[in-house]
Amino acid sequence: MATEASETSTLTRDGHRPAQASRKPGFTVRSGWGPTALAGAGLLCLLAGLLVLALQIKAIFSDQLKQEYTGLVLDAIGRAESARDLASARQPLTGDGAGEPQDYRNARIGLAARLASVAALVNADPAAAPHISQRALSPDVNFEDTDALLRSESEYWRARRDLVSADLRSRIARVAKTLMILSALIITALVSALGMYAKRTHQLARESRRFEFAALHDALTGLPNRRQLFAMLAQTPPEARADPLARTLAVLYIDLDGFKQVNDSLGHRVGDEFLVAIARRFRESVRLSDVVARIGGDEFAVLVRGLSMDAELGMIAERLIACVAETGKQMRIGSVSASIGIASFPQPIEDHRHLLAAADETMYQVKRSGKNGYAFATPVQRSEAC
């Protein structure tokens, strides 16, 4: 196990974590409009557009009612003109009113009724059109006055119909433009929302990967930590394949001898630099398929796949021991060596999940036997470790 000094090797002389180890991943603070502000602005624009659209639609309905009312008035004027033509056709040739034929008198009465209908519509107009006097509705009024009245009313209401039609077309065009603007606004808002959602999701995924990496890797060396090594061992199934080498696993448990003296004599900063250099040398001395992990303090482990012979594993252990010695000489930190315990699956360890514990126990036997060497786990040691 790691000593007290080695476990605190990632601390500086004043008791604080180095910048590399203390940096915590997090979200960066950005200035500018956030999603809430953009959503609020978009909502206000949408509400304003809907209000304008509602007012335009209300005006369109009003213009349609005006147009229908104008049509009723013009229709009544047309019927009055027809009644005027009928009365003119039945007018007697003589100017003696006492001798008027009954059909002519009835035609004049019918004309007066038609004029009364026109007057009722015109005088009831909410837009306050010029009213028609009751004197103009008498059956005895002359045709010239009636013609002038009908002509004046027809010109007024036709002009009014044209104005209402033009205003209706203008309002319909404005409604169409408003709808296009609202559609563009909604599409822009949706695209912006999707863009912000995708960006936010990407940021969260990136931060999640950072947190996951920090949880499964050593902050000082960047190597996988004990948690990830246990996860790898737990997820490695002893599959029955035709090639026996495909099933073999081995763990080399490494403890640095004399590392406490490095921290005590040279300081934790030098100790941290030594651990980083050792981690790099270990990584360079094994295959890409092998896993080098820092278990804690001055303890490391190497997970090896596909090697079944003790001689091959022994060569790896010798390279690791040489890496420690050479690094110590290069950094001039004194005598530092390595004690390594090796446990293999499926022989002699039958359960690959117990490899780390068996290798740890074997490593302690090496330290008790004089350090600076390696040894292989036996079934007895495997039972003691479990």
Notable features of this structure?
11 helices; alpha+beta; 386 residues; 9% strand
Instruction: Give the number of helices.
Output: 11
Overall number of strands = 5
Rounded to an integer in angstroms, the radius of gyration calculated over CA atoms is 51 Å
For the largest beta sheet, what order do the strands appear in spatially?
2-3-1-4-5
Global outline: rod-shaped
The profile of the biggest β sheet is: 5 strands, mixed
Query: What is the terminal-to-terminal distance?
Result: 16 Å
Order of helices and strands: HHHHHHEHHEEHEHEH
Task: Note down, in words, how this protein is organized.
- The structure is a single chain.
- With 386 residues, the protein is of the alpha+beta class.
- Mean pLDDT is 81; it is low at 1-29 and 382-386.
- Helix 7 runs antiparallel to helix 8 and helix 8 (268-285) packs antiparallel against helix 9.
- It has a 5-stranded mixed sheet with strand order 2-3-1-4-5, sandwiched between helices.
- It has 11 helices and 5 strands.
Summarize the structure.
With 386 residues, this protein is α+β, with helices and mostly antiparallel strands. Helix content is 61%, strand content 9%.
List the helices and strands and how they pair.
Layout: H1 4-7, H2 19-22, H3 35-89, H4 102-123, H5 143-216, H6 226-234, E1 249-257, H7 259-266, H8 268-285, E2 291-296, E3 299-305, H9 310-331, E4 337-345, H10 355-368, E5 373-376, H11 379-385
Parallel strand pairs: 4-5
Antiparallel strand pairs: 1-3, 1-4, 2-3
Helix pairs in contact: 3-4, 3-5, 7-8, 8-9, 10-11
